[in-house]
Design brief:
Number of strands: 2
Largest sheet: 2 strands, antiparallel
Helix content: over 70%
Strand order of the largest sheet: 1-2
Radius of gyration: 22 Å
Structural class: mainly alpha
Strand content: under 5%
Length: about 475
């Protein structure tokens, strides 16, 4: 008679389709950073400066994505860049990247529950925010605990709503910009808001400061790599997703910022809670604020949903590599790392308490670590790809045998690393964000120290690949 444990799957199931992977990556990037943070970027850098900042962020995202793509096609495992860093940089770096990425997403999951509750308060002001937090916590836990397919399908539709909202905004805003739609009896602005105070009214300092906000908005695209271990036919799905995602993200972001800058003066954009709502109201769309409230609620739930998935898989990967408790590597009957999911949810809810009882101390530290963690992850992805390609060639592998390969090697990963270092330099330059750099890098140093004291004598089990068949993953 089989035991309960024997009935459980031992490996994650490849149940995501190509469309899920594409929308997952797209949805991970289009979120509150665009709907709410775009006004801040325009206010800091001016119209042209904001576009330059988003182009910079888009280029950095592209470089990180193609580096991740090459690694994920060769080694399509859950945990992705954590495993890649462990194998090609070193177990200590894999440990640090895994835990800092988990902490970053787990914290944001908790914040998204509160944000969703605050958005619901617009329609139901008499219901306490904590009630909505509980409802959305149960909802997202259920979605993630059922199957990977249920998560992917939900995220597909969440992302679809966000993408549709951005497309409609670009079309309606462009029509208003050129006078095809009237705005509150105002003349069509055309390009007047671009030229009024010059293209860079705050100088290049504002561009540098806004770049940090923009790069953080683009983070989430790497979720594609985390999902690679549960995707059908990753050798085809991953390259297709990368080719499509970067072009679409840049189009959506840059066109949206262009339209916003043309319609809303840059001085006003920086103080608006959501410039998207302002534009919809200016063109006379009924219930504009309610429509955007629903879209932003969808974006918030999408981030929470994606964050739970990412945290669960990273914790599962750490457990598989002996860098976390073995219980986090156990799957339930549906192939979901349920213990990892529960621990992530508990931490996310506990982080909410720090936003109330320790807002100026522990909560600020956690936010600082999260901000640094995303840039470090992209840097580790680029460095792991650089080390992989060097090792692959040194051991006799032929680059033409790689089904997806980074162009202009080694220039591409080196440029990605240098741009990530530039982000840290911009952060250090800005006195208001300098403290976050200290806390974030301090946590990284503490993780390295902990690893060397706790794990240096332990053998770390990581996946391998063969040069003859680089896309055949071998345990």
């Amino acid at each position: 008679m089989q035991t309960v444990h024997e009935n459980h799957p031992k490996e994650l199931q490849r149940s995501m389709k190509s469309r899920h992977l594409f929308m997952l990556s797209l949805g991970g990037v289009i979120g509150t950073g665009l709907f709410l943070g775009s006004g801040y970027a325009i206010g800091e850098a001016g119209p042209a400066g904001a576009i330059v900042a988003y182009l910079f962020g888009g280029l950095l995202m592209y470089l990180a994505m193609i580096c991740l793509g090459e690694l994920s096609v060769v080694m399509p495992v859950s945990g992705s860049f954590q495993v890649h860093a462990t194998k090609f940089i070193g177990p200590a770096t894999g440990f640090v990247i895994g835990w800092i990425y988990w902490l970053s997403w787990a914290l944001y999951v908790g914040l998204e529950f509160v944000a969703a509750g605050l958005l619901m308060a617009r329609w139901f002001p008499n219901i306490p925010v904590w009630v909505w937090c509980v409802i959305f916590t149960v909802l997202l836990f259920t979605i993630n605990a059922l199957t990977t397919r249920s998560f992917a399908e939900t995220e597909y539709w969440f992302s679809g709503i966000k993408v549709l909202a951005v497309i409609l905004f670009i079309i309606i805003g462009a029509a208003a910009m050129f006078g095809l739609i009237h705005m509150d009896a105002q003349p069509a602005p055309f390009f007047s808001n671009f030229m009024g105070d010059g293209l860079f009214p705050t100088g290049f300092t504002g561009v540098f400061i806004s770049m940090m906000t923009v790069v953080y908005a683009f983070q989430g695209s790497e979720i594609m790599g985390v999902a690679a271990g549960e995707t059908e036919n990753p050798q085809q799905s991953i390259p297709r997703a990368i080719r499509n995602i970067v072009i679409r993200v840049l189009l959506f972001y840059v066109l949206a910022i262009f339209v916003l800058s043309a319609i809303v003066p840059w001085q006003e954009a920086g103080v608006l809670e959501s410039p998207f709502v302002t534009v919809f109201e200016m063109v006379g769309i009924p219930y504009a604020a309610d429509i955007m409230n629903f879209v932003i609620l969808t974006a918030v739930l999408s981030v929470g949903n994606t964050g739970l998935f990412a945290c669960t898989r990273i914790l599962f990967s750490l457990s598989q590599n002996g860098m976390a408790h073995p219980s986090f590597g156990k799957l339930n009957r549906r192939g979901v790392p349920i213990n990892a999911l529960l621990v992530t949810l508990v931490f996310a809810l506990l982080s909410l308490l720090t936003s109330v009882v320790a807002e100026e101390t522990l909560f600020v530290v956690l936010l600082s670590i999260s901000g640094v963690g995303g840039v470090l992850t992209w840097m580790a992805i680029a460095f792991a790809q650089y080390r992989f390609r060097k090792q692959y060639i040194r051991e006799g592998g032929k680059v033409e045998n790689l089904k997806f390969r980074v162009p202009f090697f080694p220039f591409t990963p080196i440029l990605c690393i240098l741009m990530c270092l530039g982000i840290f330099m911009f952060t250090a330059y800005d006195s208001t964000q300098r403290t976050s750099l200290y806390w974030g890098l301090g946590f990284v140093a503490a993780c390295y120290i902990f690893y060397y004291f706790r794990y240096t004598r332990r053998k770390i089990d990581v996946p391998t690949f063969t040069n003859e068949q680089p896309n055949d993953f071998v345990q």
